[in-house]
Design a protein that fits this description.
With about 700 residues, this protein is an alpha+beta fold. It is built from eleven helices and 36 strands. The strands form six sheets. Strands 9, 10, 12, 13, 14, 15, 16, 17, 18, 19, 22 and 23 form a twelve-stranded mixed β-sheet that branches. Strands 1-2-3-4-8-7-6-5 form an eight-stranded antiparallel β-sheet. A five-stranded antiparallel β-sheet has the order 28-29-30-31-32, with helices on one face. A hairpin with a 2-residue loop joins strand 33 and strand 34. The radius of gyration is 34 Å and the shape is globular.
Length: about 700
C-alpha cells in the first residue's frame, strides 16, 4: 500500500513573537522553485524496517479490536515505519460516510508497536451532519459541559484514561474555523490528579443538548511519580523570587514601545530550575551584540555598482570562486560554483533594495536540492556559532553592533543543522520581530541559509530610554496575570516530565492570537500584543502573588492597623520605635469616633471620646488623662509631617482595646473593648491589604 507519512509533532516552547516572511524568502521561492522547500519529515516512507514480530494483518486486527473503531470501518493506508522508539505499524481507518466537504465523517489513526503489539497512538474523529444550525438554544454552556462530561465518561475508547475539562480559554484565532452553532468542550488527560494537555479530547454539543462529534488525540506515555515534587507554595515562591521579566521593544508599525513581558514560564517541579529549552529567551536582557561598533557606516545611498555587489557576494563564498553569475532580478545574484563531490552548487545572494549595501538573504543548495551530502564529524555549537557570526559580519557589516544571538536550535530530524537566531538591539533591548536566522550544517560547517526579517532603517530606533518602570513592580504585575499549575509535559519520545507552569488566568483578556497583555515600561499601563491600550480592564481579584507577598516572612510593612475588623487606611503607615507601635493620630482617633484638636502654640494634641479626654505633647512622655498626669513609654513624634502616637496607651485611654499580632505585624483595635479573634484566613487577608497599602505608599 502507498503511504503518506504523518508527522509526530513534539511539543516545543513557542516563540511569543510572530514571524514575518522576509522579501528574500519570497524571492528565493520564485527564483529557485522547490529547492528551498521545507526539510523532509523525521522519517521516510522508504525507510527499511527491521523484520517485525507483528505482521500487518495482526496490526490491523489489533486496531479493529479497539472499542472506539466501529464494525463498518474500512482500512485505508497501512505502513511500517522505523521510529526512534522502534518499528511501528501505522493503520488508518474510516467509515463509509462523507460530509459535505468530501471528508470522512469518522476517521481513525492507530499506531501499533511492531515488536509487541501494544497501542502507541490513537487519533479518532467522529462527526455527524448538522441539519439545522439555527435551532433555538435549549441549553447553556454549563449544561453543555455537563453533557460532554457524561459523554466522555461513558465512551469506551480502548485506552485507560481519565479526563477533566480544560478551564483555560482558547484564543479567537485558534477557534476561528469552529462551528459557532455548537458548544465546544475541551478535555485533557488527568494522571495522578495532574493535567497532561497533549492527550486531549474535544466534544461538540449542539443547541439541543446532543453530542454530535468528538476529536481524540492520545499517545501512550510514561508518567513519573509526583510524590517527590516540590510543594506548590515553594514553587510559587521560586517563581516570585527568580522570575525576571523581559524588557524589549514592541514593534508596532515600526514604532518601538518598551514593554515588559514574561517569557520565563516553566519550572522543573523536581529541582526548581528554569531550563532554556522550555523558557523562550530567558535572560533576554543580557544579550550581547556580535560587534562593539559597526564595521562600516550606515547609509541608504550606497548605490553599489554591479561589480561592487558581486565582490561582496563572492566574499560570502570564501575561497571558492563562482563559475557562473546570473541576476534573475535587480540586486539578486545567483552564483554557481563547482562542487567537489557533485556537479555544482547554487548560491542565492539578495541585497537590500533600500540601497544600504547590506546583504539580507542567502541560500545554498546543490543540483539535487538543499541536502548537501557532505560526510564528516559534527562541529561543536561554538564552532557553528563562530561561522554564523563571521558570516553575518560579512553580510551586514553596518549592523553588527545591533545584532545579538538570542537562540540556537540543533535540528537532527533530517540532517544535523544548527539554527541561530539573532535579534536586533536598541538601547540594549531586543527589538520585537526584527530577527536574522542563520543555518549552519553541522557535518560540514557550511552556511546553508540566512533569512532576514530586519526593518532596514535606523530612523525608528529611539533615543536612550529614561525613567522606565521598576523591574520588581513590573514583575509582580505580570505574575498576577497567571495561575501556577503543576502539569505533566512532553519530554521526549514517550516520556513525560513534571513542570510547574505559569498559565494565563481565564479572566485575563487575550489578544486575537492568544498573547496576554504586556506592560508599557514608560507609563506602567497595559497594552495588547500590538501596542494598543486594553479595551477592557484587567480583573482586580486577589492572586497567589498577593498571598505569597503577604506571607508572614515576606511582609515589608512595619505595622498596620485593623479597626473593628477592617484594615485602616492611614495615609502615613504605622512605624515601630523603641518596641512600641506608633500610629498617625488623626486617622486612627477619628476612625474611633474621637475628636482631635491640634494646639500649635503648645505643640499639644487633645483627643476626646465620650467621657475620656487625653492631652499629649509632642516629643514628651508626659500626658494628661482625664485631668490626671500620666506617663508614656514612647513620646508622640512628628514623622512624615504627621503626629504619631503610641497606639496601646492612647487607645486604651479612650476606652478601646488593643492587641498585637506579632507574626502579621497587625495592631488589632476594638472600639467596644472586646478583643478581636480573627482566623488565619482573616489575618492573611489583612496582611495582603496591608502589603498592598505599603506597596502603594512606597511606589512599588
Amino acid at each position: 500500500m502507498k503511504f503518506k507519512p504523518r508527522n509526530r509533532v513534539s511539543p516545543k516552547v513557542q516563540s511569543p513573537r510572530s514571524f514575518l516572511i522576509p522579501a528574500f524568502m519570497l524571492t528565493a521561492l520564485l527564483v529557485c522553485g522547490p529547492t528551498l522547500a521545507s526539510l523532509p519529515t523525521a522519517y521516510s516512507a522508504e525507510t527499511e524496517a527491521k523484520q517485525p514480530l507483528i505482521t500487518e494483518d495482526q496490526a490491523v486486527a489489533i486496531a479493529r479490536s479497539l472499542p472506539v473503531i466501529p464494525g463498518n470501518a474500512a482500512v485505508g493506508e497501512v505502513h511500517l515505519a522505523n521510529l526512534l522508539d522502534g518499528a511501528v505499524w501505522m493503520v488508518q481507518l474510516h467509515t463509509p460516510d462523507k460530509d459535505a466537504n468530501g471528508n470522512w465523517q469518522s476517521s481513525y489513526s492507530v499506531d501499533i508497536s511492531a515488536e509487541n503489539g501494544s497501542l502507541i497512538l490513537l487519533s479518532a474523529r467522529e462527526h455527524s451532519q448538522q441539519e439545522n444550525k439555527n435551532a433555538e438554544k435549549t441549553i447553556d454552556g454549563t449544561q453543555a459541559a455537563a453533557i460532554a462530561q457524561a459523554f466522555v465518561q461513558a465512551k469506551t475508547w480502548g485506552v485507560d484514561t481519565k479526563w477533566a475539562i480544560n478551564p483555560y480559554p482558547e484564543s479567537a484565532y485558534s477557534t476561528r474555523s469552529d462551528d459557532k452553532s455548537l458548544y465546544k468542550v475541551r478535555f485533557d488527560q488527568i494522571v495522578n490528579g495532574i493535567r497532561y494537555d497533549q492527550n486531549r479530547c474535544t466534544v461538540w454539543v449542539n443547541q439541543a443538548g446532543e453530542p454530535v462529534g468528538y476529536d481524540l488525540d492520545w499517545s501512550a506515555m510514561e508518567f513519573p511519580d509526583p510524590s517527590s515534587v516540590m510543594k506548590e507554595a515553594e514553587a510559587k515562591a521560586i517563581f516570585l523570587d527568580q522570575t525576571r521579566p523581559s524588557l524589549y521593544y514592541l514593534n508596532t508599525n515600526n514604532r518601538l514601545e518598551p514593554v515588559y513581558t514574561l517569557w520565563q514560564k516553566n519550572m522543573d517541579a523536581m529541582t526548581g530550575n528554569f531550563s532554556s529549552d522550555r523558557n523562550y529567551n530567558h535572560g533576554i536582557r543580557d544579550l550581547k551584540p556580535i560587534g562593539k561598533a559597526p564595521l562600516e557606516p550606515w547609509t541608504t545611498a550606497a548605490d553599489l555598482s554591479y561589480a561592487q555587489m558581486l565582490e561582496r557576494a563572492e566574499k560570502l563564498l570564501g575561497p571558492t570562486k563562482p563559475v557562473e553569475v546570473v541576476t534573475p532580478e535587480e540586486k539578486v545574484y545567483r552564483l554557481t560554483t563547482s562542487a567537489k563531490d557533485h556537479g555544482s552548487e547554487q548560491h542565492l545572494v539578495n541585497f537590500d533594495p533600500n540601497n544600504t549595501g547590506q546583504i539580507i538573504g542567502y541560500g545554498r543548495w546543490n543540483e539535487e536540492g538543499i541536502d548537501l551530502q557532505t560526510a564528516g564529524p559534527l562541529i561543536s555549537e561554538q564552532e557553528a556559532r563562530e561561522k554564523a557570526t563571521d558570516f553575518l559580519k560579512k553580510a551586514m557589516p553596518a549592523l553588527v553592533h545591533q545584532l545579538a544571538e538570542s537562540g540556537v536550535w540543533f535540528n537532527q530530524s533530517y540532517r544535523p543543522l544548527y539554527q541561530f537566531t539573532f535579534n536586533r538591539l536598541a538601547n540594549g533591548m531586543m527589538v520585537d520581530r526584527e530577527t536574522v536566522t542563520v543555518e549552519v550544517q553541522a557535518d560540514s560547517g557550511q552556511i546553508i541559509s540566512m533569512i532576514s526579517g530586519l526593518y532596514m532603517s535606523q530612523e525608528h530606533i529611539p533615543a536612550n530610554e529614561d525613567a522606565l518602570a521598576a523591574e520588581e513592580k513590573a514583575k509582580h504585575a505580570l505574575l498576577k496575570l497567571y495561575d501556577v499549575e503543576l502539569q505533566y509535559q512532553w519530554k521526549k519520545s514517550s516520556q513525560a516530565e513534571l513542570q510547574y507552569q505559569l498559565v494565563v488566568r481565564p479572566e485575563v483578556p487575550l489578544f486575537y492570537t492568544g498573547q496576554p497583555p504586556v506592560l508599557d515600561a514608560r507609563t506602567g499601563k497595559w497594552l495588547n500584543f500590538i501596542g494598543e491600550p486594553l479595551s477592557e480592564p484587567l480583573p482586580s481579584k486577589t492572586t497567589w502573588v498577593d498571598e505569597v507577598l503577604a506571607s508572614p516572612e515576606r511582609i515589608r510593612y512595619e505595622a498596620a492597623i485593623v479597626l473593628d475588623g477592617q484594615l485602616l487606611k492611614t495615609g502615613p503607615l504605622p512605624v515601630i520605635r523603641d518596641g512600641s507601635t506608633l500610629v498617625p493620630i488623626r486617622a486612627l482617633l477619628e476612625a474611633l469616633g474621637a475628636t482631635v484638636e491640634w494646639l500649635p502654640e503648645t505643640r499639644k494634641t487633645v483627643a476626646s471620646r465620650g467621657t475620656s479626654r487625653i492631652e499629649l505633647t509632642l516629643d514628651s512622655t508626659e500626658a494628661v488623662w482625664n485631668g490626671r498626669p500620666a506617663n508614656l513609654e514612647v513620646p508622640p513624634q512628628l514623622i512624615h509631617n504627621s503626629v504619631f502616637i503610641p497606639a496601646r496607651a492612647i487607645i486604651e485611654a479612650l476606652n478601646g482595646r488593643v492587641d498585637w499580632d506579632s507574626e502579621s505585624r497587625l495592631v488589632l483595635v476594638s472600639s467596644t473593648g472586646t478583643a478581636l479573634q480573627p482566623s488565619r484566613e482573616q489575618l492573611a487577608k489583612w496582611r495582603m491589604e496591608a502589603q498592598a497599602q505599603w506597596e502603594s505608599s512606597s511606589g512599588m
